[in-house]
Amino acid sequence: QVQLVESGGGVVQPGRSLRLSCAAAGFTFSRYAMHWVRQAPGKGLEWVGAVSHDGSDKHYADSVKGRFTISRDNSKNTLYVQMNSLRAEDTAVYYCARDFEEYTYGEGFRYWGQGTLVTVSS
Amino acid sequence: QSALTQPASVSGSPGQSITISCTGTSSDVGVYNYVSWYQQHPGKAPKLMIYDVSNRPSGVSNRFSGSKSGNTASLTISGLQAEDEGDYYCSSYTTSSTLVFGGGTKLTVL
C-alpha cells in the first residue's frame, strides 16, 4: 500500500536551516507530482509547494518563495524540502502528499504522510 | 494567494444534512474543476473526501457529495453520523499553478 514517511523535523533557531525528507513506497514515485503542506499549531492547512513528477517544474507559496526549495530523487523515491532563513511563523507540522493521478498536477492529495513537526524558536 | 473562504463552523444532528461552502475567485474555484475536500480529525493527517469538484475516491461514503457554481464550491454531507465530526478543508488549483486551501470548517454533530 502507499506509504509516505516524513522525517527531519525538530527544533531550530530563527534564521537557521533545516531539510525535511519524505520517503515514498507502494507506488511508482517517478510518475507523480508531490507536494508539501503545513499546519501551524491550532491552525488550518497551508500549501507550501510542489514538484512535478520528473523534478523539472516547481511551484511555491508566496510565504516561502525564495527561502524554501523543493526537490526529489526519483532513484531513491524521496521528496525533500530545504528550508532556509526559518522564522517563528514557519513552526508547523509539515506533511508530504501525493497528487491524485499519474502525470497530473493539482487535482488533489490522495495520500498524505503522518507529518513531522518543525519548531522555530530561540 | 488568498485563502478560500469557508464558514468557521457548522453543526447538525445525526441523520440531517449539512452543506459547507467554499468561496474563491475567478483565479481559482471559478476557472478550474480542480476543487477537492478534506476531512481531518484531531492529531491525524487530512483525508481526501472529494476531488475534481464532485468525485469520490474509492472507500469514501456516498453520503459525501460535492458541487460547484461560479466561484463557490460546496460539500454536502447527508445522513450525518457522529464519526463525521471534525475539520473540513477545501482546496483549489489556481491560475498561478499553485494550490490554495480554505480556512477550514469545524463540523459538530449535535
Structure write-up:
The complex is a heterodimer of chains A (122) and B (110). Helices cover 0% and strands 50% of the residues of chain A. With 122 residues, chain A is an all-beta fold. In chain A, strand 5 and strand 6 form a beta hairpin. Chain A contains no helices and 11 strands. Chain B is built from no helices and 9 strands. The mean pLDDT of chain B is 96. The interface between A and B is medium-sized, with 24 and 27 residues.
Q: Helical residue percent of chain B?
A: under 10%
The count of DSSP E runs of length 2 or more, i.e. the number of strands of chain A, is 11
Enumerate how many helices of chain B there are, as a single number.
0
Low-pLDDT stretches of chain A: none
Order of helices and strands of chain A: EEEEEEEEEEE
**Structure class of chain A:** mainly beta
N to C succession of SSEs of chain B: EEEEEEEEE
User: What share of the residues of chain B does DSSP label as strand, in percent?
Assistant: 35-45%
> What would you call the quaternary organization?
heterodimer
Shape of chain B: globular
**Biggest chain pair contact, residues each?**
A-B, 24 and 27 residues
Strand content of chain A: over 45%
Largest sheet of chain A: 7 strands, mixed
Low-confidence stretches of chain B: none
Number of strands of chain B: 9
Intertermini distance of chain B: 35 Å
Instruction: Indicate the radius of gyration of chain A in whole angstroms.
Output: 13 Å
Query: Could you say which structural class the secondary elements and strand pairing of chain B correspond to?
Result: mainly beta
